[in-house]
Input
Amino acid sequence: MASRQKKMDAIALLKADHRKVEDLFAQFEKARDRDRKEKLVKQICMELSIHTMIEEEIFYPTCAGQVKDDDLLEEAYVEHDGAKVLVAELMNSGPDNEFFDAKVHVLSEMIKHHVKEEEKRSEGLFAEAKDAGLDMDGLGERLMQRKQELMEEFAEGDNLPAPQTRSFTGHELQQGKPIGAGQAAD
Output
């Protein structure tokens, strides 16, 4: 039987995603076991990929032209694209990679900044979207429906699509083998 998600407005849903990823990053910082780190990064990458897709497919286009400061949207796309580069890097490497932990840490810092920008009380993107009078309940339903579709499609986290960047030109990100796959055994 499929579980029913509690209805949330758009901002509550997106903030819940933010809290979940913050928790996963905190767990990664405490993890010492290679397999645990690998599993956490796989989950972080999946959560961020899905969150980014629903924001870029639904939330940001709905906000475009409605919020006072469209620069917030442009910056959000650039921040997403920077995160996508690191997600692709992490998905194509593993805990044995020399820079793996550093990449996770930098991704965490980037996401903290992005979340802060979206959640600012008066001038953040979420506040502006709310002030614009957007239908947050209807938007929340659309976001949740798309999120559930993507979660089913990418349930294992092994088949995430190659990230598509909107603001970075001339770069093609590859989504290769899943974390740890194909690494030579010692």
Notes: Residues 34-63 form the longest helix (30 residues). The CA atoms of residues 86 and 106 lie 8 Å apart. The chain has one domain: 10-153. Confidence is low (pLDDT under 50) at residues 176-186.
